[in-house]
Each structure stands twice: as structure tokens, then as C-alpha cells.
Amino acid sequence: MSYIEVKNVFKKFGKQEVLNNITFSIEEGERFGLIGPNGAGKSTLIDIITGLTPVNSGQVLIDGMDIRNDRVEIRKQIGLVPQEIALLDHINAKGNLEYFGSLYNLDRTTLKQRVTEALEMTGLRDDVKKTIKAFSGGMKRRLNIAAALLHHPRFLILDEPTVGVDPQSRNKIFEFIKFMNEEHQTTILYTSHYMEEIENLTQRLFILDQGVQVAYGYQDDIKAMVQDKVKWIVEFDNLPSNIKEIISNRIPGIHHLHQEMNRLELMVDPSQFKSTALFHTIAHEELELNSLYKEPLSLEEAFLQLTGKRLRD
């Protein structure tokens, strides 16, 4: 049995179906990604996994316990870092952690030790006496993470923890996640709108769109789901403003066309696309070609093909 099992979960709010037959599992000690466009149902799914929202049907098991029947015991194993920062602005970092630690009924000695430990792990030891108002966005994010660690959770859920943070804080968050996973075998569920974070931090992932499963598995397996598509990169000296319209109308087999300055990315169906048609169009429009080559599909491009959207949409 996997450490976390989500089985045939359905959820409605009124007549609106938010999640439709969601099924996946997470192994203990795994770093697992949950991604999807805005409105995909990720936040609702996290609320269900943590016991904040009930399912209409289906089952969520954590360490063999059913979230419907064993919510109190399960919550002892979960640390949740929410998308919205949840801190008390009028007191300092240490006071915040002492307050949140008291919610876990930790005794005074244990709480003091855990607060020191959490500040150390998140790189905030030297900022312990600063009030939250003096913290940067990145420091607030890290303190939010520290608050979720005080009870030593086996399962840590991070819901877009790098939104609005500076590069230094972002890197510290990455280092911390890997440390918790590798040194403490903490199971990680990570959501983000930055695909490079998903590629760097997670081993397997679940793609959700409009409440339904789009893909589930290792990153290479998900890329293989769109292996019938090929990406061509075409670079020019200059391009006319209507180049996308010209190419789309004249060259069959183009599934998606993206332009960045004088660079075109063509996602094509090789059974229909002919490079000769591209060369004829280039010659006809008297375009100055700099380079033309194929490129392997990235996880971001696989996501685009599977959902029709970019992750940040």
C-alpha cells in the first residue's frame, strides 16, 4: 500500500463539478508534483487531502487511515504551507512560531527546541526578533514553512511556496525541500506555476485540468504521451508582423506556433508537416533564415499539448 492513496474522488459545489474521478498515489519519501492551470481544482484537492473539505464520493487514505474517519490522527502527520501567507504581523518571528507551535500542544521544552530548529532550517535564525512587518516576501514565505514544521510532519504540502519571492529566498526554499526529503525522508506534495521548479524538485506528477486527470506518472512518461509531436525551431534576421498567419495558412501539420521576437517554435505533426513546405514559404516571403533545427519536447511543451494551455495561464 502506498503512503497516500487518492481513490475515485468526486467533488461538487452545488451543481458545479470541481473534481471528477481523481485517482493517484504517492509513495513515502517521494517528491510529488501537482500541477494544472488556474481553476483546475488543485486547491480543492489539497483541501480534501488535508481533511478541510469532504468528498462527495471516493476515498483518501494516508498511512492506511481514511481521512473521513481518522482526520485528527492524519493531521498530526501533515504540514501544510498554504498559498496565502498566514502569519501574525504584530509580533516577531519567534513569537509567531511559538503561537503556531502551541496549536500542536507541544510542551514548553519541546516547543523551544523545535522553534530554534525550524528557524535554523529555513535560514531565519538571525531574524528571530524582527516583526513580520519588517520581513521581505521571501522571508515571510520561509517563516510560513517553518511554522508547518514544528510538529515534525511526515507529509509536507507546499502550495506555490515561491510566489512573489526573491531569487535568494527561492533557492533557500529549494534547498530546504531537498534537505527535508533526503535527510528526513519527508514526503513532499508540491504545487507551482513554474515548470522549472516541477522539473527540478519532483519525481512524478499529476496533471489536473478542469477537475479531470490529464496525465500521471514520471516526467519522461508524460513527455512520451505527446511523442507524436515534433518541435522545430526557426530563427530569422527579421520577420513580418503577420508571419504567424502566413505560416499557419500555407503549411499543413502545424499543431501550435509560438513566436519570440525573430524566433519561431513550431509544434508539428510529422505525418502531415513537410519541411519543404516551410522552405518554400521562407523563399516566397524572401525571409533571411539564420537557423533551422529540431528540439526535444520539454515538460512545459508536453503540458501545453495535453491541456492546450501554458502552466501560468
UniProtKB/TrEMBL annotation:
InterPro entries in the cross-refs: AAA+_ATPase, ABC_transporter-like_ATP-bd, ABC_transporter-like_CS, P-loop_NTPase
Keyword RNA-binding in record: no
PROSITE patterns: ABC_TRANSPORTER_1, ABC_TRANSPORTER_2
Pfam family name, one: ABC_tran
Keywords: ATP-binding, Nucleotide-binding
Domain ABC transporter: 4-235
Record GO terms (molecular function): ATP binding; ATP hydrolysis activity
Gene3D superfamilies per the UniProt record, alphabetical: P-loop containing nucleotide triphosphate hydrolases
Entry-linked PANTHER family: LINEARMYCIN RESISTANCE ATP-BINDING PROTEIN LNRL
Stated name of the protein: ABC-2 type transport system ATP-binding protein
Classification lineage: Bacteria, Bacillati, Bacillota, Bacilli, Lactobacillales
